[in-house]
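Below is how a single chain appears once it has passed through the pipeline. First comes the sequence as given, then the structure the pipeline wrote out for it. We keep one example in the README because the format questions we get most often are answered faster by looking than by reading.
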Amino acid sequence: MSPSNEVIAIDNEDLENVEEFTFLESVVPGSESDLKRRTALAASFWKTQENGRSMPVDAPEGDPPRDDRIRDQTGLGHPTTDGGAQHPQGESGNAGGWRWCESKGQKTPIYAIKSKAVHSCFLVWRTEERPTNMKILLAVLAALVVDGALALYSPSSGVIDLTSSNFQRDVVRGDEIWIIEFYAPWCGHCQQLVPEYQKAAQALKGVVKVGGVNADEHKSLAGQYGVRGFPTIKIFGLDKNKPEDYNGQRSAQGIVDAGMKAVREKVNAQLSGKKSGGSGSGGGGNADDVVELTDSNFEKLVLKSDDMWLVEFFAPWCGHCKTLAPHWQKAASELKGKVKLGAVDATVHTVTASRYGVQGYPTIKFFNKGEVEEYDGGRTASDIVSWANDKAATNVEPPEIVQIVDDDSLDKACKENPICVIAVLPHILDCQSKCRQNYIDTLTVLGDKYKQKSWGWVWTEAMAQADLEQALDIGGFGYPALAALNAKKMQFALLKGAFSEHGINEFLRDISFGRGRTAPVRGAKLPAVVTVELWDGKDGSLPEEEDIDLSDVDLDDLDDVQKDEL
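Resulting structure:
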């Protein structure tokens, strides 16, 4: 059966028998051969009831509950809040969307798909029964089989499809130079890049390999290489363990030029006798990067540390442990500075091994500030790195919302991070301490929500950094105002909606997935920062006027002056 683009619209009449909405968590769109399994799973998530009625209604204030598993496990698009009631057929777009339905007097979120391939909504709810309304079931099944239509590159495009299963073998261990795009099928910028990227692939055929990774399907692979937005293009050249970001023009010529530059660098390196990194099988790690842990140092180094640890409990005679050793070393080197890797000889340090119930070898456990959990990933270096990166992203500390007081504070937030969020808050006389703190608290909540993005977050008072406001076109909509800046590309986007948790969340969600309008920074560089004092957290006050002592003033003289003026 070939994938179908036809989706039967779900209207209100179809919702009459719906009782309880929830999320479809276990259907993962994949190949056509997987259709029967997915069909069976879909059919098991339906329930009907007499006299029930569900109608789309306006969403309440604030965000609907997030469940990233919907996007991560189904690949059906990113959930975005939609505050208005719309007919489920909706409009064609590139993003998924939340809708709210009323069931038994309570508002419960359902999930709707909107994409270029799906011109309908997708409603799911949990049950053990099959639906009596086959029209709705057909709509769901049609939505489930569009995954083939959502692929950006066909086999004849020249762009090689890379996955978690072939990436290590073909890219990292291969000798070829690779240009690789990490994309999401629903991303508008990714779709715009397709014709240029295909041209580049055809032009570089036989010289440089051009590949694509669907980051929606292979999230851990994207996370391993720090992908935080789409499209992200990386060049795997001389050192495969340290790919370079491509930040040039999104044109075939720009991509080809970058590929040829990597070819010249590799040729020159080989001419001078240098070896390229990443090719070959296994190895590549430094044994010194694996920390030797014992009964005497385990508590101090691991349990009382703020660092995250992956710890292997091994036995010297264990064959599986010996096989794991080079992968463990390589992973330790790649994760240096993010997650520490240690090893405990469980045959010697029996107290620690017994404490954590080690009964077989190797046993791997994850430690984070005294908390411990089982490692359930694979045993290759790439598997270990991917698993650890996912944990590091989940457990990262929320960013600090920093006031711009000098050049250093702005540079750290914007030049050392992929994106920085710049808020311009009203003057303290227009918005006293409680008002200002409320705005900062809103930014703090959102900073925590987007902490995995590793963005910088700064704020300044209105007109305190007038040149910066001018460079980012801030001020035309009043204060507070907010911009998201990519300092590497000198591009920014302005918040046009409400300065609220909901409004900013919508804005940042679009930014994080490559949507929304951007503009170049005026002057193509950040202006110098005016050094100001750090806000003390107190209310503002007008400067006191100096009292004038009138005791020495001759009032008769003043009368004469007034007469002369008349």
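Residues 402-524 form a domain with the Glutaredoxin fold (CATH 3.40.30.10).

See the next section for the split statistics.
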